[in-house]
Fold:
Amino acid sequence: MLSAGLAGFASLGACTTDYQKGVDDPNYGDPNALAGLTQPGTSENKAAEAGASSGPLCVANGGRLVDAGTCAVSFANEILPAFAAANCALVGGCHGGVTPANQPPIDTANAKATWDAFASLQINNGASGTLTYINPCSTDDKQSGMACNMYATGYCGVHMPSGGQLDQAVITKIETWLKCGSPNN
Structure:
């Protein structure tokens, strides 16, 4: 008699309902599907509503964008491909993916978003204070945190790319582009 009662209890425990299986549960998306996104609406409207200015950090701090004329080096066509070749933007790497391990994020498929991220990032360069990663309000390449990162000896910041050195030809292109006022070209 006892074994018949246990068998009935075991069969009751083996019955799983659709509710327990989550059959009709709504799907709100994959984990982290909204990482890096903002509320609907344009960023310009949000900045205006918050009383903040949009655009490069140097402009928000009272500077003016430099017009250094036509630059011989293109951010989209030469600088970003150099970062891709140096593996800076690998997904899951230092500066790649939706939530990169290190700032600024580098998206070689989206030059505007990458330039915006560079122009709005401020880094600490030690005793001398802070620098924006790129400074489109200056033609002095030493006013850019990016310049700090690319020399093997480094005069500030952390040497990049990690574990390697950019070719001198790439460094020259980056210096030229920074001296053009870091245009979004």
